[in-house]
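Hey, quick one: can you model this chain's 3D structure?
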Amino acid sequence: MTSPALAERLDGLLFFPVTAFGPDGGLDLDAFRAHVRAGVEAGAAAVFACCGTGEFHALSPEEFGACVAAAVEETAGRVPVVAGAGYGTVLALRYARIAEEAGADGLLAMPPYLVVADQQGLLRHYTALAQGTGLDVIVYQRDNAVFTPETVVALAQVPNIIGLKDGHGDLDLMQRIISAVRTELPGRNFLYFNGLPTAELTGLAYRGIGVSLYSSAVYAFSPEIALAFHSALARGDDATVNRLLDGFYRPLVDLRNQGRGYAVSLVKAGVRLRGLDVGEVRPPLSEPAAAHVKELGELIERGLALLGDH
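Sure thing. Here's the predicted structure for all 310 residues.
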């Protein structure tokens, strides 16, 4: 059953679980369920299933549906479930239907596959997706889907497009988008999310333009650190924020930048390090180097130790 008030429910730390695979490379729904269950019990405000961190690109429609349904069952209505949707308009609509049938509360609409479209084409794509589903839609800005303020104003006029997740990182553009929507659509409750990889690193900057919601990849393998950071950022405890930035998040981003695809594969390695075997990433991604996994383990220990330092 979809939620008519998804926008009001997205208030807190957003959990993007990895998708678990077994030794044979097939879907491991038991491990995925355990991962989702642990994340919700730790305090996640929402579950974004089968999105970027969840290797949406590597899943068949059948696997996607099974994962979304499992996430819906494990959350049992305690928090909303938002599912990924992508590729071209026809396939995006197919994934939307699957997500809706599985009981998801909303969609994270990822960039179209392969092509670089103009603003009118992007507007047509996301409008068609939103109009073709009963679910609320969050549009993901990144890569080949970067919007002008005018396009976001137009998207925000579609009733079930409820927000914009920014993975592009242009704060000047984001401020102009926020200002344009506020000016042109006064009273519109339109959400903005910091969707950059390791979003905590830019949390202070996004907070400065009024964007407090963000996706936390760290939450997938260390909810303790992610929740401590989120709480400190929300209450304006910049001393704690900076301690975690300097001692954990900046070194983590430095490590993440050592390999292509590490925004996903390193997160999955972190989940395994914390005791849950969620398997390896699927091609075309590769596993992180053993030395980098070792460094990640040391970083996690350092981050946990920082939680006790005041």
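One thing worth noting: The first helix runs from residue 6 to 9.
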